[in-house]
Amino acid sequence: MSMRETLLSIIEQSFEELNDTREPGNLLSFHPEVALYGANSSLDSVDLVNLLLAIEERIEDELDISFTIANEKALSQKNSPFKTVKSLCDYLQIELAK
Amino acid sequence: MFIDFLENIFLSNQSKEAIVWKEQPYTYANLVEQLRLWQEKLNQHNVQPGTVVMVQADYSPASIALFLALIEKQCIFVPITSSVAAQKKEFIEVSQVELVITIDESDNARFENTEISSAHTFYETLREEAVPGLVLFSSGSTGKSKAAVHDLAKLLDKFKVPRHAMRAISFLLYDHIGGVNTLLYTLSNAGCLITLENRQPDYVLRMVEKFAVELLPTSPSFINLMLISDAYKNYDISSLTTVTYGTEPMPESTLAQFHRLFPDIRLLQTYGLSELGIMRSKSKDSSSLWMKVGGEGFETRIVEGILHIKAYSAMLGYLNAPSPFTADGWFNTGDMVEQDGEYIKILGRESEIINVGGQKVFPAEVESVLQQLDEVAEAQVFGQENAILGNVVSAKIRLSNSVNDWDKSQAKKMLKKHCMGHLESFKIPAKFYFDDAEQFSARFKKQRTKVA
């Protein structure tokens, strides 16, 4: 698996983890363009934070890399990395390669 | 007589917009009409001065007019919003509510008598002095909400000084000291209160654009979320001149980023407590966390790094907790501060309360929910810093021997599911740590994926 595929799979599994504890009528669907936060997203701020923490945990478990996704640098980027699954994946790919 | 000064302002600004509700403007003339209507309704229901009246509502023309009518009637006003619906029964008991008025989403009202008869020294004091009261629920260190009783006549005093009229968003809630402050400030200066149907950045900023909002009183988390959502890129928010934030410590980086994006918006930190009211404060500049607090009616001192305040508008006391005041009237805020001349900087709470995006979480409450499960032998709940929400709730769990064949994700899922039925989402631990690493190491083994 390429790094990108691994990250996408980690994000997808983290979505599933969130869905495990959501009401059946309120499940999140997963695809690269899905909005993580903002007007078009069904995630609220608590959901977003939970998702990011779930992803962090999987990155640590599966890649053995300890990385805090919601850091000050991510928050002060001109284009928010938390816009879509794709932008988050782009951001992680760059940051984890460092 | 208590709201004469407000009525005079309303009457001389009849054609001005007072409230925007569900995106519809209501003028001061409309507000006066609503006020008369509510005064009549209170009379029809034979509401007497000194009655403890709970109002469950969000901001609307009716709920605002009712608030004013209750002040004038010298009632003791206990506002709550649907966000605390789960605690409504407890709040009714603690504050000995005699009458509950519920205002629904269409602004229709329902009256219910509780058959409770209230008797408390603080209520007696208010009744003897023939002044209206206000009861606000604040956070206690054990998870039980504390009911702070205020003399509303004193709280109203500071609004008699005319200040700048603003078009303000009602971001803070109807039952929050900051919300009460925004409402009274706006009305006493013939400004306009723009009410919200939700608090998502996109919607809030759309309201700013649509209704030319000048003042947005909010929280650091909202500022974070506004930046993350990129919502500001979609709307013209040039009408906004001032953003105020309070209730939780602000990361300096967020402040700097906001200031870079919006150099013309004045950022002001406010400082207020349910027990004392909102103080006037002045930030050193828009990118600074240093501020001067105080103003008329407030004195401050710092004792062992903790801010103490003496306020003219301070509450009489708690209904259900011992007096937090020293004999000479000082209140220990529990906030640790740094001092530089006349400026202070809030470092954070002394106590262990976890502040998640401005909402308070008591470890004890979450721990007790976790411990309801037989599978949990021990639970310890604490806060961990988070760049988006300030803090998140984390829990360290020791599982019982009966479930020692469970893996981490199974355990997490079960714990979260249980919490869902008992806690609001922000209180549910976002991170679980499982204790007794040795015992669990076999099952919690890291799974590695090969990376090309």
Automatic annotation (TrEMBL), chain A:
InterPro entries: ACP-like_sf
Highest taxon, organism lineage: Bacteria
Name of this protein: Carrier domain-containing protein
Species name: Alteromonas sediminis
Species classification: Bacteria, Pseudomonadati, Pseudomonadota, Gammaproteobacteria, Alteromonadales
Automatic annotation (TrEMBL), chain B:
Keywords: Ligase
GO molecular function annotation: medium-chain fatty acid-CoA ligase activity
Domain AMP-dependent synthetase/ligase: 14-279
CDD domains the UniProt entry points to: AFD_class_I
InterPro entries: AMP-bd_C, AMP-bd_C_sf, AMP-binding_CS, AMP-dep_synth/lig_dom, ANL_N_sf
Segments forming domain AMP-binding enzyme C-terminal: 365-434
GO aspect biological process, one term: fatty acid metabolic process
Family: Belongs to the ATP-dependent AMP-binding enzyme family.
PANTHER family (UniProt xref): ACYL-COA SYNTHETASE, MEDIUM-CHAIN ACYL-COA LIGASE ACSF2, MITOCHONDRIAL
Name of the protein described by the UniProt record: Long-chain fatty acid--CoA ligase
